[in-house]
Hints:
The protein is mainly α.
Amino acid sequence: xxxxxxxxxxxxxxxxxxxxxxxxxxxxxxxxxxxxxxxxxxxxxxxxxxxxxxxxxxxxxxxxxxxxxxxxxxxxxxxxxxxxxxxxxxxxxxxxxxxxxxxxxxxxxxxxxxxxxxxxxxxxxxxxxxxxxxxxxxxxxxxxxxxxxxxxxxxxxxxxxxxxxxxxxxxxxxxxxxxxxxxxxxxxxxxxxxxxxxxxxxxxxxxxxxxxxxxxxxxxxxxxxxxxxxxxxxxxxxxxxxxxxxxxxxxxxxxxxxxxxxxxxxxxxxxxxxxxxxxxxxxxxxxxxxxxxxxxxxxxxxxxxxxxxxxxxxxxxxxxxxxxxxxxxxxxxxxxxxxxxxxxxxxxxxxxxxxxxxxxxxxxxxxxxxxxxxxxxxxxxxxxxxxxxxxxxxxxxxxxxxxxxxxxxxxxxxxxxxxxxxxxxxxxxxxxxxxxxxxxxxxxxxxxxxxxxxxxxxxxxxxxxxxxxxxxxxxxxxxxxxxxxxxxxxxxxxxxxxxxxxxxxxxxxxxxxxxxxxxxx
Length: 521
């Protein structure tokens, strides 16, 4: 369905809703900072093990529901089908393995930094290598957890609103599914192709996704701090088991948003039209064209994106502060002072380091705006490239008692070198994986169907159908093929400009789409 007329700018009510959400999040952090201003560093970082299961569960869910997820996963479903939902299957074994094997060890040792385990198991050198590879706002972990709980509510409310209004706009849920099937964006048939060059298959999404999820849940500082913030190991396990359906729910919301968006723009792709210049602008455009008629709702969704970003940033800043204190600053102070430094000094160091990391994050945000959408691929690639090697060190530490510190250190270096070579090579050679979906088109667009007050530059009407597979793709060479692999196996490319390789010719696609639209119009 072609998009109708809409005013693509904020109403005063949108600014009001957006500001209210941000102010509320700030008040929670400020309240926690004032109330716990005399707290020790351990209390700031672990909440003194007095946090409740429900808010910690929600915090776990939204810690990695970043703006990349909200903007990127629906875009992935729009351009490359909803087959990405199979990655949700990988959550089950990853979280069960974490509960059974990893969590009891971390909880019994009462660690503040996940990388303290590497020193206990191997030596301090391996610990520092893990900390550097990984490298709270002022209220500490309590503020982070309760703010995350609020942001989870905002994210769910805004995404449900967008899905509901978008579904109504296209004529109901049956219309959404019919459009998804016509465009091959939804099917119950699983792709069992073992070829790692195919973008999404059962094997790459489930097996590769399991390793990716396990690195998140079992070897990640942000997750560990939440496990240690509840009162007992049983409650920590309950937290992660409750987190499983919550994370599946968030994934389902993102995929449904992508399917509704595909039905809304079927036959009138805004990227081909030139209404947007990047694939990751799809969701913001969809929000403004469907929700701008209801003042306040676009502001709620923008608050949703900011909430997702804030939850991720607050978790990361708090975790970085913990690693900085426990792995770098505290050992130096203990060596110089010939004893344990005061709790007051460690609390100040924790707050100051969190503040510095927050300022660094702001600077990187401005840098991302200058660089463009490529920064999303770079950031997610870095996460994938370092997550696997770190997980490997923890796995051999737990399950391979014969491995010594030299083996762990050399293995970590070699793993990092290999993953960095593949990941950076994929970025530099601009490789794209194979897709077999019908190309997008603009056959249903009308010249008179303009959108006023468009804030994106370069608005132009295009009425040709073409496959995006030839856009910005370098010719394959024996070396470049080494870098072309499934996005889940090497990196998660959410929100990137997609490519398609159509099974049918452009002429056949034109004829088929024209006949279908004549039937439905």
